[in-house]
Amino acid sequence: MKILRFIVSRLLQSVPVLLGVSIVTFLLMVNTPGDPIRLLVGVRASDETIAIIRDRYGLDDPILSQYFTYLGNLVQGDLGASLRFKVPVSELVAQFYPVTLFLVVYSIVLILPPVILLSVWSAKRPNGPADQIIRIVGVIGLAMPVFWVGLLFARFFGVTLGLFPVSGFGTTIPEHFLHLFLPSLTTAIWVVPILTRNLRSALLDEMNRDYVTAGMSKGLGAPQVFRTHVFPNSLLPTLNLFAVIVAYLLGGSVIVETVYAVPGMGKLMVDSILARDYFVVQGATLVFALTTIVVMLAVDILSALIDPRINT
Amino acid sequence: MINAKGLVIVTFATATLAGGAIAQDIVRIASPNKVTTLDPIASAAAGNIEAFGQLYARLLRKDAEGKLQPALAESWTVSDDGLTYTFELRDAKFSDGSEITAEDVAFSLNRVAKDEASAYPAAYAPVSAFTAVDEDTVSLTLDYPSAPMLSYMEIFNAGIVSKDDVEARGEDAFAADPVSSGPFMVDVWKPNDRLTLKANPNYWREGYPKVAGADLIEVQDDNTRTSMMLAGEIDANRGVPFAQVDEVDASDSVNVPLSPSTLIYGVMPNHTKPPFDNLNVRKAAAMALNREATTKAMTLGKAVVANSTLPNALTYHNADIAPPAYDPAAARELLESEDALGAEITLMITPTFEQAATLLKAQWDAAGFKTTVERVDGGLWWDRLTKGDYQVTINWWYNETEDPDLAVRWAVCGSCGNNSYYTNYNNEDVNQMVEDALREQDDAKRGALYKEIQRISTEELAQIPLYYPPFANAYSTRIKGLTLTPALQWTLEETEIVN
C-alpha cells in the first residue's frame, strides 16, 4: 500500500513538471524565428499565399491565446495536429515512439551483460592486466564519436560483410531485432564503458568495507560475500546513473537514428524542429518528459526492492 | 544467462530467416527530400513534387527526349489568337475505377490556377478558366496569350484529381490518401518516414507501370544513403555528394550517371543594403572570385561553371555572356575607387555551405572586403531572406520546367512577387521583358527577349552565378530505366527490375 501511495504521489508531482515543460517548449518554439508555412508550401509560394495559409492554421493569433488553446486541448488528451502532415500528433507519436522504445530496450539488453561481466572481472584484481585492458578499451569506446562509429559499423558490418541491414526498422519482430542491432551496438559502445567504470569503483568500495572482513572472519566464503552483500550494495549508485543514461538515450537517440535511418522519435523531433512543426515538437517533448519521469520512478522502486533501507 | 555473443548468434539466425522476405518487385528510392502532402496544389517543395508525378496523370506528358506527348488529352487545338485551348480527353479511369471526366479535369486545373491556397500558381496567371464543354472535352481560355501554356499542362501541379473524392472526403483526408490518376496509388503513407506506392491497375497507359510498387524513403544523411545503396537496401539514391560519386560509381552493382538538371548555384547580394546596392561593389565581389577554382573545389570538377543568371538547361540559355572575369587586383582598385575598401560584409549561410563560405571569405578578404560568416538553419534562412534582413548569402535554385518563364519570374523579376529571389534586384526593363516574353508567340523573338534578360541581369549581377551542377543520383543495376528528369519527375512507370 505504501508503495502504491508513493507511485500516486510521484505521478501527481509530475503534473506541474509537465506543465512547466510545455510552457518552456512553447515559448522556445514561438520565439524561434522561421515560418513553418514557407517551409511547408515550398519556397516559391508568394507572400500572399503564405499569409492566407498562416491564417488558416491560426498562427496569427496572439501567442497567449495560442497557448491556452493548446493547453485546453491537451487537458482533453488532444496533442494537436502536425502542421506539416495534418495528422494528429498522437498518431505520429504512436508511429515513432515504439521504434525508439524498442531501440532503447534493445540497447539495454546489449549493455547490461558486458557491464556486469567486465566490472566484476576488473574489480577482482584491481590494476591487474584485465583491469588495465578493460579500462583502455573503455576509454577508446568513450572517445569515439557516435556518428563516426555508426558510419564505420554500417560500412563494415553492413556493406563489406553484409551481415546486418544498415537502415530501417523492418516489419516483423525478428526483423526489428536485425535492423536495430547495429544502432543498439553503436549505442552500447559508449554506454558500456561509463557504467563499467562506475560499477567497478562501487564494487571496489564495497569490497573494502568492514562487513566484508566480518563476513569472511565468520567463515562465509568469498563468493557468497560477493553475491549476497557486495554486489547488491554496489548496484545502487550504478542503477541511478543507469536511469539517467536511459532517459538520455530516449532523447539522445537522434544520432543513431540519423546514421541508421531508423524512423524513431529522435528523427521526428529533429525534423519537426527544423520544419518549425510546433505541435509535434510540443507533443514529442511531453512524451520524452513523461518517459523520463516513469524511468526515474521505476528506478526508485527498484532501488527500494534491492535495498529495503531506502525509504520510498 | 544471455550474453552479447549469444545474442549476436540469435540475431544472426533470424537474419538468415528474414532474408527471403525482402520485397523483390518494388523500387526503393531514398531521398533527403520530404513528402509532406499528397495534394498536388498544396506544395511546391522538391519532395512533394517528386511524389505528385507518380500519383497524378496530366493532360500531357514528356517523352524521353523531352517532347510533349498526349497523355490524358488525346489531342488538342489552339485558337489563332492563342487564347483558347481545346483538349479532347481519352477514356481513362481513376485508381478507384471511376471515369476521368472533363469535370474532373476542369475542377483540378481551376483549383491549381485559382484556389487561394494553391502554393505555386504562377504558371497559370493568364488563365481565365478551364471549362468542361462535354463529357470528354475541356476548354481553356486565357486572358492574354502565354507561349509556354501547353507545356504547363505537363508540370507537377497540373495533375488531375478526382472531384468526387476531394469533395466527398474533404481536402485533408484527400491530401493523405488520394484517389489517384497516375501510374501509382498510395499503399501506405507514414509521414516523416516513407511513402509506399503500389501500381494503379487503372492507369491509362496500357502495360505501365512495369513494377508492382515503389518506396519513397526519407533519409536525411548523405552517408547513410550511400551505405544503404552499397548494402543493396535501396535501388536509387537521390543525391550522392560529389565527394562520393567516384567511390559509389566504382561499386559493381551501382551506377552514378551525372544527368542534366536545371540547378544553379550562386551568390545572392541584397540589392537594397549597402554595400551591395552599388553595382561596382557587386562587380568587385564577382571579380574577386575565381569561379572556376571555386566550382572545382566544391564539385570536384563535376559541374559546369555558370555564365548566366539562368540555368543552362533552360531553353534560350544565353551562352554568349559571362560575369566579369577573375581579377583580384582590379577588384581591389574598384573597391578603392568606390571608397569601399575594407567594407564589412556579412555572409549568411546554412550549414550545407560551410565549405563555400570558407572559399568565398578567403577570396573576398584577399580583394579588400572584411567578411564575417553567419550561420543559420534553413527555417531562419528563409525568414531572414524574405524579410531582406541580410547583406549577402549563397544558395541554389532549380526550375520546375525547361521553359524560362517561371525561372525569370523567380530569379530576376522585381515585380513578379518574389523580388528576384528576394535579392531585391529590380530593373523595370527586365520586368517588362519578362511579361513581353510570356506573350510573344514567335519563337525567335521570344528567345531574343530571354537572352536579353540574361545579358542585362548578368551584367548588373542580379546574382553572381557560380555553377550548374548535374543531378548525381545513384542507381542499382537491379533496375533499368529509372532517371530523374530536369523537371524533378522520376521515370518510375518506365522502370523495370532486371535481376
TrEMBL record, chain A:
Keyword annotations: Cell membrane, Membrane, Transmembrane, Transmembrane helix, Transport
Biological-process GO terms, alphabetical: transmembrane transport
Domain ABC transmembrane type-1, residue spans: 97-303
One CC-aspect GO term: plasma membrane
Database matches in CDD domains: TM_PBP2
Keyword field contains Thylakoid: no
InterPro entries, per database record: BPD_transp_1_N, MetI-like, MetI-like_sf
Subcellular location: Cell membrane
UniProt topology in membrane: Multi-pass membrane protein
One Pfam assignment: BPD_transp_1
Transmembrane residue ranges: 12-30, 96-121, 133-157, 177-195, 241-263, 283-306
Family: Belongs to the binding-protein-dependent transport system permease family.
Protein name as annotated: ABC transporter permease
Provenance organism: Neptunicoccus cionae
Taxonomic lineage of the native organism: Bacteria, Pseudomonadati, Pseudomonadota, Alphaproteobacteria, Rhodobacterales
From TrEMBL, chain B:
Short name of one Pfam family: SBP_bac_5
GO biological process, alphabetically ordered: peptide transport
GO cellular component: ATP-binding cassette (ABC) transporter complex; outer membrane-bounded periplasmic space
Record InterPro entries: Peptide/Ni-bd, SBP_5, SBP_5_dom
Gene3D superfamilies registered for this protein in UniProt: Dipeptide-binding Protein, Domain 3, Periplasmic binding protein-like II
Residue span, Solute-binding protein family domain: 67-411
Any GO MF annotation of the entry: peptide transmembrane transporter activity
Keyword Signal listed: yes
Intracellular or extracellular location(s): Periplasm
Keyword Signal: yes
Keyword set, alphabetical order: Signal, Transport
Family: Belongs to the bacterial solute-binding protein 5 family.
PANTHER family: PERIPLASMIC BINDING COMPONENT OF ABC TRANSPORTER (PTHR30290), PERIPLASMIC OLIGOPEPTIDE-BINDING PROTEIN-RELATED (PTHR30290:SF10)
Official protein name in the record: Diguanylate cyclase
The organism of origin for this protein: Neptunicoccus cionae
